[in-house]
Design brief:
Layout lengths: L1 H10 L4 H12 L5 H15 L10 H5 L96 E2 L9 E3 L5 H12 L4 E20 L2 E12 L5 E3 L5 E2 L7 E2 L6 H15 L2 E9 L2 E11 L5 E17 L2 E6 L5 E2 L2
Helix pairs in contact: 1-2
């Protein structure tokens, strides 16, 4: 082998390094196939530096040649799980194989709750002409809603009551004219110069009472008028009521509240609703008549407010002063 190396060196086929490799290979008892292939590859590269040869390295010869044809998917093989799908798909509620993906968490900030709209300002002030606020005492009860229910007759005192026969805000029609009022006033004034018609304000109440005494009882009902100027209580005056008068007049308004006039009406009824009842008892051939005093039971006295009404009167003035004449009865009255 040494001689072969020297010959190759003389011919210039190998250099000194290749000759040493040949000598070393000869000295080894058993040649390593892989090392021999590497040495042969190095000699081939040095022998053909221009790349005219076709060296085949041992590493490439040992690997199988890969085909560039696309591989067909095996239908029996399990499908590969896509990247990022770490969770098992959840079955759909309807039993199908559709996958339910978890919705991605929203990164947007929640919008703040909308503020409630501000209340619109009132278009007109309270009490202005354009505001339609009905007067509770001048509203027709037949067209208004019924009052709230009350627990007892006494608790109903002062509450409005439905009475189709009464219309709030009406006026008793005068039965005495101006000339007659002047004649009636002359007896008190000796001389009357002028007479003016005035309308006095009243609150009208309907009452229901139970009168009891010594084992006897009876029911009583009626109406009373309470002056909102003085609190005086009078029986309901007779006469027709009208909405408006066709003659000149002056209408007054009182200053007393509804509670004050209701209390005045109740007190007047407790004092004035006294009745005498006669009870007849027969003993053999004689009869005994017993008179029983009946008084109103305060717990059974109900006073219901009907509304407002006006009573007419004449104001007559003269050199000696002023007198008033009831425009319904013609009676001279004091203020």
């Amino acid at each position: 082998m040494l001689e072969r190396a020297e010959q190759l060196m003389e011919q210039g086929a190998v250099d000194d390094g290749d000759a040493e490799l040949l000598v070393e290979e000869d000295d080894e008892p058993e040649a390593d196939p892989e090392r021999s292939q590497r040495a042969h590859s190095q000699r081939s590269e040095q022998t053909d530096p221009g790349g005219a040869g076709e060296p085949q390295p041992a590493e490439q010869s040992q690997q199988p040649r890969q085909s560039h044809q696309p591989q067909q998917a095996d239908p029996a093989a399990e499908p590969t799980q896509p990247r990022g799908a770490e969770k098992d798909p959840m079955p759909a509620e309807d039993g199908s194989d559709a996958e339910i993906l978890d919705p991605e968490p929203s990164t947007s900030r929640p919008e703040p709750d909308a503020e409630p709209p501000e209340p619109e300002p009132a278009s007109t002030a309270r009490g202005s002409p354009s505001e339609s606020t009905p007067d509770p005492e001048t509203t027709d009860p037949s067209t208004s809603s019924p009052p709230d229910a009350v627990d007892s007759p006494a608790a109903a005192a002062g509450a409005r009551s439905e009475d189709p026969s009464f219309v709030s805000g009406t006026t008793i029609e005068p039965q005495v004219d101006r000339d007659e009022a002047l004649r009636e006033a002359e007896e008190a004034l000796f001389e009357a110069d002028d007479a003016r018609l005035e309308l006095l304000p009243f609150r009208v109440y309907r009452y229901q009472a139970r009168l009891v005494g010594d084992g006897a009882e009876r029911e009583d009902e009626g109406r009373v008028w309470v002056s909102t100027q003085s609190g005086a209580v009078v029986r309901a005056p007779a006469g027709d009521r009208v909405a408006e008068l066709d003659q000149p007049h002056e209408r007054f308004d009182g200053s007393m509240s509804g509670d004050e006039t209701q209390a005045a009406a109740r007190e007047h009824l407790l004092d004035s609703l006294e009745r005498r009842d006669e009870r007849r008892q027969d003993y053999n051939e004689s009869a005994v008549i017993e008179r029983v005093q009946l008084e109103p039971d305060p717990e059974a006295l109900a006073v219901d407010r009907l509304g407002k009404a006006y009573a007419p009167r004449w104001r007559v003035e003269g050199p000696d002063g002023t007198v008033f004449v009831d425009a319904v009865t013609g009676e001279v009255v004091t203020d």
